[in-house]
Specification:
Layout: E1 3-9, E2 12-17, E3 20-26, E4 31-37, E5 41-46, E6 49-53, H1 57-72, E7 77-82, H2 87-93, E8 99-104, H3 107-116, H4 118-121, E9 130-134, H5 137-143, E10 148-154, H6 168-177, E11 178-189, H7 191-208, E12 211-217, E13 227-233, H8 242-252, H9 261-267, H10 272-279
Parallel strand pairs: 7-8, 7-10, 8-9, 10-11
Antiparallel strand pairs: 1-2, 3-4, 4-5, 5-6, 11-13, 12-13
Length: 281
Amino acid sequence: MLSFAEAIHDGFGQSFRVDRLVHYEKTDLQELVVFDNASFGRVLALDGVIQLTERDHHVYHEMIAHVPVLAHGAVRDALVIGGGDGGALRELLWHAGVRVTLVEIDPRVIETARAHLPFVCGDAFDHARAEIVVGDGLAFVRDTDRRFDVIVVDSTDPVGPAAALFGEGFYRDCARRLAPGGVLVTQAGVPFFQGAQVAAAHRVRSRLFAHATVYLAAVPTYTGGPMALGFASDADLAPGDAAVLRERYVAAGLATRYYAPDVHVGAFALPPEVRALLRDA
């Protein structure tokens, strides 16, 4: 029986039984694997690390997309860096009137999502309000003169092609590309295993934005406890007011499985050990 062993953390890993290998290739940038598993359904892995599963991807995608949009309250233009599976793109497009530009460095991730992960992307890549750019997100935010209300950095962990997306230069460029009152949200890692990474990225964001913190989401596939998502803005938008968020949620006509206005507010209630990581950053 085939198995997929993920060993992203020193001294600890997790294993998935491969009930059916759906797709395997080495792209120009990374190893890409799609397989089926009895517990998690279809699974996507890049360079030996699980990126999403059919069973729980909605937790991550709903929280990385709806938190910044509903916190802001008047988003018209959003940018996604990475996110080639289309999940964050699809969630952002549920908000009527929001135009979304997605910049993905590896076109094979997009093509694989279209072919094998329709439950993630749906028809988002072909949506009239979506612009798909195949290219380097680092270069895009450095060179564009456009401004965005929300920037979502939906990256892998800071290894391989994604390493530069955790650096100060990239965050500085993101800050310049945000419209007044705009929000930057980033995949920040699991504090239990990646506390130094969470703290280092928070340290940079704190220097560049008037308000910076993280919020948490419980994604079973991302082992080690809740995952942190970085949140930064020059406006004071976190944790937000549950009543205001509820009005915006209802007005948007959303039907979510994990995100809710009270979950939004509660996600910013950090355990002392996570607060200590940020305080010591």
